[in-house]
Amino acid sequence: MAAFFNQRNVIALLVLFSVAFPFITQNEYFLHIMTLSFIWMIGVYGLNLLAGYTGYLSLAHAGFFAIGAYSLGLLTVKAQMNFWLAFVLACLITSVVGLFVGLIALRTKEHFFAIYTLCVGYIIYLVIDKWESLTEGVRGLIGIPAPSNIGPIAFDNALSIYYLVLTILLLVILVVYRIVHSLNGRTYLAIRNSEDLAQTIGISTMKNKLTVFVLSTFFAGLAGALYASFVRFIGPDIGSTAITFDLLTYLLVGGIGTLSGPIVGTIIIVWVSQQLQFLQDYRMLIFGPVLTLLIIFYPRGIVGGVVDWRHKYQEKKNRKLSVNSLVKPEKQVKEG
């Protein structure tokens, strides 16, 4: 039973459930919430790749999310560019901005890095909010187009957009899986465990950290572009620090540094939030204590807690087998 609850099986089950979800319910509101969850998951995977595998917590994630969203919105609404070309450029623009921010931010460490990125995120929010001639300020961008057709495939209803976002999410999970289980993934873990030790054995820590940071911002921009095309209206609030802390909450609840954590945490928090809409102004009174208790007793989140339980169960089973293997020969000697 314990062997069944490995991360690969959990992800496979969640993917199968996601594919079958539209057949389970015909409610478009539920499809809307699930599609929105998938978009957040993409952003959380980017945050997890940086914070979970290199140990650098970026608090500018909402800012990069907003850059991706506004890049797509401005290129399609004001520049009248083709949707998919604008979509690709939005991700690239976010990555380039992430590259320049990372070159400076990664010269700091630990809480200094978190504070610096928090300031960067707030600056991005202020630029979006105050540069009215470009971003329309608090009025926001209206009329962002939905994804255009790809050959015979049209994205003109909730179901088709649902499967489009799900497909992109699966590609993101595959990319993250390949990165984590590659030599580069081991390098990132070495940096997280001890950056000084990693440097002494010849690892270029700055190069590796910058690569992860740019990848993280790319996923944030990708999520932002999908969000803009999904809701079709965006305002400065999508770049606020509240969005960053929402993404961080999804990650901490699911399990930081785990592959299935972003899926589990996002699904749970988003759906619980929807059920508690009548307590919207007081939801942190509920989530705050729960999150605090979770961090105290399960610092690696729900998925991390299950993984730890599985390892303890396996160790206990192995010890029992080793004890039995030592006891049996003694019995045989006595009987002889």
Structural account:
With 336 residues, the protein is an all-alpha fold. The chain has one domain (7-288): ABC transporter involved in vitamin B12 uptake, BtuC (Orthogonal Bundle), CATH 1.10.3470. The protein contains 14 helices and two strands, in the order H-H-H-H-H-H-E-H-H-H-H-E-H-H-H-H. It has helices at 7-24, 28-54, 61-77, 83-105, 110-130, 132-135, 158-180, 183-193, 195-200, 205-231, 241-254, 261-275, 283-297, 301-335, and strands spanning 141-142, 233-234. The protein has a two-stranded antiparallel ribbon. Helix 1 (7-24) runs antiparallel to helix 7 and helix 11 packs parallel to helix 14 (301-335). It is a multi-pass membrane protein. Keywords: Cell membrane, Membrane, Transmembrane, Transmembrane helix.
